Amino acid sequence: MTWLRAAATIRIMATQSTLLVLSPDADLRSSALRFADDRSQVVFFDDAAEALSAGRKLAVAVFLVDARERHLLTEGLVRRIRQLPSAPQLLILPPEDEALPAQVMPDEIHLADGREESLRNQVRRLLRFHAVRTRSGIVGSTTGISELLNTIVQVGPLDVPVLIQGESGTGKELVARALHDESPRRDLPFVSVNVGSLPETLLESELFGHEKGAFTGAVARREGVFERANRGTLFLDEVGEMPPAMQVKLLRVLESNEYQRVGGNQTLSTDVRLLAATHRSLEEEMKAGRFRGDLYYRLKVIKVEIPPLRDRYEDIPLLVQSFLTAINARHGLHRKGLTRDAMERLVRYAWPGNVRELRNVVASMAVLGTSDYLGVDDLPEELVTQETGQGVMPVPVRLGSNGREGDSLLTSTLLSLMTDLRRVNERLDRIETLLGRGSHETGAGAGSGPGSVIWDDAADDAEFTPVAPDLPQDLAGAERTMIEASLRQHRGNRRRAAEQLGISERTLYRKLKAYGL
User: Fold this and answer.
1) pLDDT tens column, 89-125
2) CATH class of residue range 145-305
């Protein structure tokens, strides 16, 4: 750990993970020295502008703001911290005697506990979170990706099976490798096999190995992946494609930790951490009789869901930046970014191939493009004449036990309709926000040329937040009805009601006060 002052002559390591503390309080600064680990440095500032300037040059993992000094925390500061290139975790130490203004408290900001031990644990957890994000290569700042990274931080060190579920191209193997890197087995083998790419006749040999002469072409003994991964991690990709007969054999190995090579009679033992992935719903496959329930529950001690790219479109500029940086380095290119029109096409596209498809599109544009800023003319034809895939979402209708529409039909339909309209409007608003920034707001990015897109993961909070005085009477009444109905449906559970309504608990609390509920 390195302790550095802003005005010190000691050189600050720009690539070292940094805890940046914005506070003039000597006691907090003294405590912060015990927060970081040997791979981190601590820097102190009492001026927000200087802190932001340093934050653009350093690998800031955690940005701690002492809001007890009320002049330090403003909406503009929060917005600019969220725009820093290292995408730090923002931790705010709040005043003891009053709440922070709602407009400076987006949901992903963490409130600090003033007690030193609790604050130290919180800082160390956020430093670890940032390290996992940096090391894993998982790019994104949306809620879904933050939850995914939090799960990796929490589950990675535990020696339990994990089932990773996500559509093709979402990065399931990236998540598996991140789980392995966070585990005590990180220095031991990580072995991956795609179950769906192998015919049934070869799958058993690939998993368990075979003896010489076990079948035609078996000219020598061969180790299987269970043997090669021993004491390490075994990743079975597309496990939902496994034939029924092989499911039985895999289950037997998981229950006994023993197996035999094909054509052999020697019993071998194995010690692996098993990670499995699938693009299918194994619950549905199980109900249809295509996947064994006992194997499913063996694999799914922990289940991780990876969101599709269409559900985290705000991450597209970050992903493009990451891909362009890698492509420039690999091929000696100097692409600075995309024009606003080109990025708008990427953001509005449905991405059936998810992150893999986006990476291939960016690679094609960068290699075949002829200018520093890649434009619409550099896009593949399917994106120029695209269908966005953003159709109208159906409104579910609940039926009563007698098969007719129940008494709650109107309420449930209105709740669904409100949620769907909110999502559509939120998506449109956030796309416009995402595409409408200028380079002067970030101080860092891919370039500042005309029409360029700035790499900025700090989209403004676009929650559905109108309150009673801002709505026409009929809409305000409808919103109040929806809130009351959602609370009734969830028996007063505000967290679940807020999730159904698509707002945060803090926003729901404001609305309850506004409507006198």
Assistant:
1) 889 888 876 666 554 555 456 787 778 888 998 898 8
2) alpha beta
